[in-house]
Write the structure tokens for this entry.
Amino acid sequence: MKNSASGEPDSYFAIRPECQGDVPKARFKPKIGKTLSARRWHAAFSQDGHLDIAGVLRRIQRGGVHPSIKGVVWEFLLGCFDPNSTFNERNEVRQRRREQYDALKAECQKMVPIIGSGKFITAAIINDDGQPMQDPSTSSDPHDNIGVMSSNDAVSDKKVIQWKLSLHQIGLDVVRTDRALVFYESEINQAKLWDILSVYAWVDNDIGYVQGMNDICSPMVILLENEADAFWCFQHAMRRLRENFRSSSSSIGVQTQLSTLSEIIKTVDPKLHQHLEEVDGGEYLFAFRMLMVLFRREFSFIDGLYLWEVMWAMEYNPNIFASYEESDSNVATGKNVAPKISNKLLKQYGKFERKNVETGRTDQNSPLAVFLVASVLETKNKRLLKEAKGLDDVVKIVGDITGKLDARKALNEALKIHKKYLNKAKK
Amino acid sequence: MAAYRADDDYDYLFKVVLIGDSGVGKSNLLSRFTRNEFSLESKSTIGVEFATRSIRVDDKIVKAQIWDTAGQERYRAITSAYYRGAVGALLVYDVTRHVTFKNVERWLKELRDHTDSNIVIMLIGNKADLRHLRAVSTEDAKAFAERENTFFMETSALESMNVENAFTEVLTQIHHVVSRKALDIGDDPAALPKGQTINVGSKDDVSAVKKVGCCSS
């Protein structure tokens, strides 16, 4: 997929030379014997394509995924495919999904022809009432091309208006997404990111587009060359993240996870929680971004991806594919149709999820990311108690450490907090 | 650039919020003021971010705790936590995008709905360096600011123009409000007294500020 054969991660996600100083230094290096390599990955399939997911998870949890195969591995980690299927079956699923994406995109294109054109917009195309914008002062941006936009009259459908109103926001964010990467110097690649986010906002109109989704989607666009594949990979990542992005007039979804975080700290370190409350940090708003975009801003690009895949491997549940397919076909059955959990099946769970299954917890609001924030706070608890006199100090102390974290070690610390929490919460 | 002071030694702590539409340059104004940095590759803000800087105002050390927020409407849900305790606000628009100026009215309403009436507000026309793309005239903005009793300045975070002035002016004005009310404040220097309205944005003050500004082209 990428033209470089070298094992150096930098060559996969090249940084523009003039931006080297602006981005955190990359720390991740593939480790022989630990990182899931391309050779190992291919060897993990049986002749007809069944994947030894337990073995793959073991590797990823020890050293991440080699950059050359991240995209295809992520598809499994995120539940796009069932490891217990054959090559042929998966090809069919892939084909069907590509066609489905094309149809969805065509539907969007009909309403806004610039979609799929290799260009995108950064200024509003309609106003809040659904009237097309004509004020030339709103389109001073070179990306704006009123001519290629949907010409037509006022839009009446509320769903359509809401979607159209989000398109320029997506554009404003696309031009600010991972711009230090050579990949996004290309306007075609920027437009690809815009297309995917725009189609997603249409399909999942309940959530629409919320700032931060661009950070989640960007790596998929880079890792999966085929746009439809990238879309579905993003769509599956959103299945576990979308509730964070749900917003009403009085709250935003991620606040549920912030409350969980608060609950965890209260349980494992009440003193620290009390201190945070005293410095007006009791709402844990300083962790907002970490949870929304899964630490992408705290890490270099490659280290962020490393963190994600180790986290997803630890959270892996072998029923993920089946449960997604089931919820799509609207078959209403009891959740977690897990058959009797044998030892062999237990090995197909990630470390974190296994613990949850063993203790009978299936709490959607307590993903590993929340425990990761908790463990970062715990690691710094002495400094926080002593030095943090305001929210900004908390941010600074937490920021000092996150940049230096090794993703795998940090997640293993998070697993310890998880265990501690489960033990204490039981009592 | 003046030396930045150690953060833990100050007489007053003022919470100041940055608001305005997406992409007008709030985060770059903040990084210019607190770290003297500007990035053309800056990313969108997710939720809230914070930064601080201490400066000398009159004979006091004032520490500004500045809250920066995402511009997207959808993030308004965390508004109440965001505005709680704020004593100053920089309401930013982009002089090259008229729609961001049009929306200032909406932001002002939100600000007034959620904050104490003593709050010091400054309207900021950012990206003033993009002279050939200007879509909002200085006069229009000035007139609006006078009508709404807010301070006004045009800035360029990129060229470092007026950024220092804008923040310093807001902090100075807050300090004046606080000093006038010093007797009521007791031992909590960050809190402004509630109740009595102090008109910090009188016309005289606005024109005084305008003299500091220098950017219409």
Q: What stands out?
A: Chain A is about 55% helix and 0% strand. The interface with chain B takes residues 19, 22, 122-124, 135, 137-138, 140, 169, 172-173, 176-177, 179-180, 208, 210-212, 214-215, 247-252, 254-255, 280, 283, 285-286, 288-289, 292-293, 297, 389-393, 395 of chain A (CB under 8 Å). The domain at 87-245 of chain A is CATH 1.10.8.270 (Helicase, Ruva Protein; domain 3).
